[in-house]
Write a structure and sequence with these properties.
lytic endotransglycosylase activity, RplA, EC 4.2.2.-, RlpA
């Protein structure tokens, strides 16, 4: 009787372990699917790089003046730089304000968080030239000019 009880407990333990590992495997598969969807989205963005990508732009706050960017350079609000979540550092892009058709060429020197709303953060000088410095955000089109890594 005792050995049958032990076998029953062992069987239950094995079943529970298998169920637990399947749950872990399912979460890993979900992460792989999410990563593939993200790469598909980035590929679609790169495919439309010739005519540009529409989105929302904002600009750096004044408190970031002098802080190091991801590229290692210090942020200067008077230079034409930007932060983007996916474009390679050193890439030059043309940003066109869709509200007034002003445009400016900036260099990607920093990373910004992947957000739903804003997908590029511009320096204050770039925002001034685009005409939305006091407004905070604007709709823009980003056109990649080259991909020169720094």
């Amino acid at each position: 009787m005792v050995s049958a009880l032990r076998k029953g407990r062992l069987a239950i333990l094995i079943i529970l372990c298998q169920a637990f590992f399947q749950i872990q495997t399912l979460s890993l598969q979900a992460e792989e699917i999410a990563a593939q969807e993200t790469s598909d989205t980035e590929a679609a963005v790169e495919a439309t790089a010739d005519e540009g990508v529409r989105g929302t732009a904002s600009y750096y706050a004044t408190r970031y003046h002098g802080r190091r960017t991801t590229s290692g350079k210090r942020y200067d609000p008077k230079k034409l730089t930007a932060a983007h979540p996916t474009l390679p550092l050193g890439t030059r892009v043309k940003v066109v304000n869709l509200a007034n058709d002003r445009e400016v060429t900036v260099t990607i020197t920093d990373r910004c968080r992947k957000r739903v709303n804003h997908f590029i953060d511009l320096s204050r000088e770039a925002a001034r030239r685009l005409g939305f410095l006091g407004k905070g955000v604007t709709q823009v089109r980003i056109i990649t000019l080259d991909e020169t890594a720094s």
